Automatic annotation (TrEMBL):
Pfam families: SSB. This is Single-stranded DNA-binding protein. Signal peptide: none annotated. Keywords: DNA-binding. GO terms for cellular component: nucleoid. Residues 165-177 have a biased composition (Acidic residues). It comes from Agromyces mariniharenae. Residues 118-191 are annotated as: Disordered. One of its GO terms (molecular function) is single-stranded DNA binding. NCBIfam families: ssb.
Length: 191
Protein backbone atom coordinates (compact mmCIF):
# COMPACT_ATOMS: atom_id res chain seq x y z
CA UNK A 1 0.00 0.00 0.00
CA UNK A 2 1.26 3.47 -0.87
CA UNK A 3 0.51 6.37 1.46
CA UNK A 4 0.04 9.61 -0.46
CA UNK A 5 0.57 12.87 1.39
CA UNK A 6 0.49 16.59 0.61
CA UNK A 7 2.40 18.88 2.96
CA UNK A 8 2.85 22.65 2.99
CA UNK A 9 5.72 24.12 4.93
CA UNK A 10 9.02 25.96 5.02
CA UNK A 11 12.20 24.52 3.52
CA UNK A 12 14.56 24.01 6.46
CA UNK A 13 17.78 23.29 4.52
CA UNK A 14 19.12 24.00 1.07
CA UNK A 15 18.66 20.96 -1.19
CA UNK A 16 21.59 18.56 -1.45
CA UNK A 17 22.26 16.65 -4.66
CA UNK A 18 23.33 13.00 -4.58
CA UNK A 19 24.13 11.00 -7.72
CA UNK A 20 24.13 7.20 -7.49
CA UNK A 21 26.74 5.03 -9.22
CA UNK A 22 24.09 4.34 -11.88
CA UNK A 23 23.73 8.08 -12.53
CA UNK A 24 20.38 8.60 -10.77
CA UNK A 25 20.07 12.18 -9.46
CA UNK A 26 18.47 12.56 -6.01
CA UNK A 27 17.84 15.93 -4.36
CA UNK A 28 16.86 16.04 -0.70
CA UNK A 29 15.99 18.76 1.79
CA UNK A 30 14.34 19.16 5.19
CA UNK A 31 10.80 20.51 5.39
CA UNK A 32 9.13 21.97 8.49
CA UNK A 33 5.34 22.00 8.66
CA UNK A 34 3.70 23.75 11.61
CA UNK A 35 0.01 23.34 12.35
CA UNK A 36 -1.80 26.61 13.11
CA UNK A 37 -4.96 26.74 15.18
CA UNK A 38 -7.26 29.40 16.54
CA UNK A 39 -7.23 29.71 20.35
CA UNK A 40 -10.75 30.91 21.18
CA UNK A 41 -9.83 31.83 24.75
CA UNK A 42 -7.06 34.18 23.59
CA UNK A 43 -8.76 35.16 20.34
CA UNK A 44 -5.51 34.64 18.40
CA UNK A 45 -3.92 32.18 16.01
CA UNK A 46 -1.28 29.99 17.65
CA UNK A 47 1.45 27.68 16.37
CA UNK A 48 1.11 24.00 17.15
CA UNK A 49 3.85 21.42 16.98
CA UNK A 50 6.22 21.38 14.03
CA UNK A 51 6.57 18.17 12.03
CA UNK A 52 9.88 17.66 10.20
CA UNK A 53 10.18 15.66 6.98
CA UNK A 54 13.07 14.72 4.72
CA UNK A 55 11.89 15.30 1.14
CA UNK A 56 13.57 13.48 -1.75
CA UNK A 57 13.02 14.05 -5.47
CA UNK A 58 14.47 11.96 -8.28
CA UNK A 59 15.70 12.51 -11.84
CA UNK A 60 14.35 15.70 -13.47
CA UNK A 61 12.49 16.69 -10.30
CA UNK A 62 15.85 16.58 -8.48
CA UNK A 63 17.49 18.87 -11.04
CA UNK A 64 14.58 21.30 -11.00
CA UNK A 65 14.46 21.35 -7.18
CA UNK A 66 18.18 22.14 -7.02
CA UNK A 67 17.63 25.17 -9.26
CA UNK A 68 14.36 26.35 -7.69
CA UNK A 69 14.11 25.50 -3.98
CA UNK A 70 16.04 27.36 -1.28
CA UNK A 71 16.13 27.38 2.50
CA UNK A 72 13.27 29.55 3.82
CA UNK A 73 11.00 29.06 0.77
CA UNK A 74 7.38 28.13 1.43
CA UNK A 75 6.54 25.07 -0.65
CA UNK A 76 3.87 22.46 -1.30
CA UNK A 77 5.10 18.86 -1.59
CA UNK A 78 3.05 15.89 -2.79
CA UNK A 79 4.38 12.35 -2.68
CA UNK A 80 4.58 9.04 -0.84
CA UNK A 81 5.08 8.93 2.93
CA UNK A 82 7.74 6.57 4.30
CA UNK A 83 8.29 6.06 8.04
CA UNK A 84 11.27 3.90 9.00
CA UNK A 85 13.36 3.11 12.06
CA UNK A 86 17.11 3.74 11.91
CA UNK A 87 20.16 2.91 14.03
CA UNK A 88 23.63 4.43 14.00
CA UNK A 89 25.84 2.98 16.70
CA UNK A 90 24.26 3.89 20.04
CA UNK A 91 21.73 6.26 18.46
CA UNK A 92 18.39 5.25 16.98
CA UNK A 93 15.27 7.01 15.85
CA UNK A 94 12.42 7.25 13.40
CA UNK A 95 12.84 8.90 9.98
CA UNK A 96 9.79 10.45 8.34
CA UNK A 97 10.41 10.84 4.62
CA UNK A 98 8.46 11.97 1.57
CA UNK A 99 9.39 10.61 -1.86
CA UNK A 100 8.14 13.59 -3.84
CA UNK A 101 6.16 13.38 -7.05
CA UNK A 102 5.66 17.17 -7.11
CA UNK A 103 7.32 20.16 -5.45
CA UNK A 104 6.18 23.74 -5.97
CA UNK A 105 6.24 27.14 -4.32
CA UNK A 106 3.24 27.98 -2.13
CA UNK A 107 1.65 30.86 -4.05
CA UNK A 108 -0.26 32.02 -0.98
CA UNK A 109 3.06 33.54 0.14
CA UNK A 110 4.55 34.95 -3.07
CA UNK A 111 4.90 34.63 -6.82
CA UNK A 112 7.11 32.47 -8.97
CA UNK A 113 7.96 32.18 -12.66
CA UNK A 114 8.02 28.77 -14.35
CA UNK A 115 10.79 28.08 -16.83
CA UNK A 116 10.24 24.92 -18.86
CA UNK A 117 13.31 22.72 -19.13
CA UNK A 118 14.24 20.83 -22.26
CA UNK A 119 15.15 17.21 -21.61
CA UNK A 120 17.91 15.21 -23.20
CA UNK A 121 16.31 12.59 -25.46
CA UNK A 122 17.31 9.03 -26.13
CA UNK A 123 15.84 9.10 -29.63
CA UNK A 124 17.42 10.02 -32.94
CA UNK A 125 19.17 13.36 -33.03
CA UNK A 126 20.24 13.10 -29.40
CA UNK A 127 17.97 15.80 -27.99
CA UNK A 128 14.24 15.69 -27.47
CA UNK A 129 12.16 18.61 -28.66
CA UNK A 130 9.57 18.04 -25.95
CA UNK A 131 9.89 20.17 -22.85
CA UNK A 132 8.12 17.72 -20.59
CA UNK A 133 4.88 19.64 -20.24
CA UNK A 134 1.42 18.08 -20.28
CA UNK A 135 0.52 16.56 -23.62
CA UNK A 136 4.12 16.32 -24.79
CA UNK A 137 4.87 12.87 -23.42
CA UNK A 138 1.79 11.10 -24.72
CA UNK A 139 -0.50 12.12 -21.86
CA UNK A 140 -3.56 14.23 -22.47
CA UNK A 141 -3.23 17.97 -22.03
CA UNK A 142 -5.11 19.02 -18.90
CA UNK A 143 -5.50 22.56 -20.28
CA UNK A 144 -6.16 22.26 -24.02
CA UNK A 145 -5.06 25.30 -25.98
CA UNK A 146 -2.94 26.86 -23.24
CA UNK A 147 0.43 25.82 -24.69
CA UNK A 148 -0.70 26.73 -28.19
CA UNK A 149 -1.78 30.21 -27.00
CA UNK A 150 1.55 30.78 -25.25
CA UNK A 151 3.37 29.71 -28.40
CA UNK A 152 1.24 32.09 -30.48
CA UNK A 153 1.97 34.96 -28.06
CA UNK A 154 5.70 34.31 -28.34
CA UNK A 155 5.53 34.24 -32.14
CA UNK A 156 3.69 37.58 -32.35
CA UNK A 157 6.09 39.19 -29.87
CA UNK A 158 3.54 39.84 -27.13
CA UNK A 159 4.16 38.94 -23.51
CA UNK A 160 1.07 37.69 -21.63
CA UNK A 161 2.68 38.73 -18.34
CA UNK A 162 2.91 42.39 -19.34
CA UNK A 163 0.16 42.89 -21.95
CA UNK A 164 -1.86 45.97 -21.08
CA UNK A 165 0.94 47.51 -19.02
CA UNK A 166 2.85 50.64 -19.99
CA UNK A 167 6.65 50.92 -19.73
CA UNK A 168 6.47 52.30 -16.20
CA UNK A 169 4.42 49.24 -15.22
CA UNK A 170 1.17 51.11 -14.79
CA UNK A 171 -1.92 49.97 -16.61
CA UNK A 172 -3.20 51.68 -19.76
CA UNK A 173 -5.12 54.23 -17.65
CA UNK A 174 -1.92 55.24 -15.84
CA UNK A 175 -2.77 53.46 -12.58
CA UNK A 176 0.20 51.70 -10.99
CA UNK A 177 -0.08 47.91 -10.83
CA UNK A 178 0.92 46.49 -7.44
CA UNK A 179 3.84 44.09 -7.52
CA UNK A 180 4.75 44.61 -11.20
CA UNK A 181 8.52 44.52 -11.50
CA UNK A 182 10.66 44.35 -14.55
CA UNK A 183 13.52 42.41 -12.96
CA UNK A 184 11.33 39.90 -11.04
CA UNK A 185 13.69 39.37 -8.08
CA UNK A 186 13.61 36.21 -6.01
CA UNK A 187 11.14 36.74 -3.19
CA UNK A 188 12.35 36.25 0.36
CA UNK A 189 9.84 34.77 2.81
CA UNK A 190 8.38 37.07 5.45
CA UNK A 191 7.95 35.49 8.87
Amino acid sequence: MTDSITVTGVVGSDPRLHVTTQGLAIASFRLASTRRYFDRAKGTWEDGETNWYTVSGFRQLASNAMASVHKGDRVVVQGRLRVRAWENGEKSGIAVEIEADSIGHDLAWGTTVLTKVRREGAGEGGQATATGGPGESGESNAWPGVEQQVAADVEDGSDPATDGLTEDFGDEDGDEVDGAREDRPRLEPVF
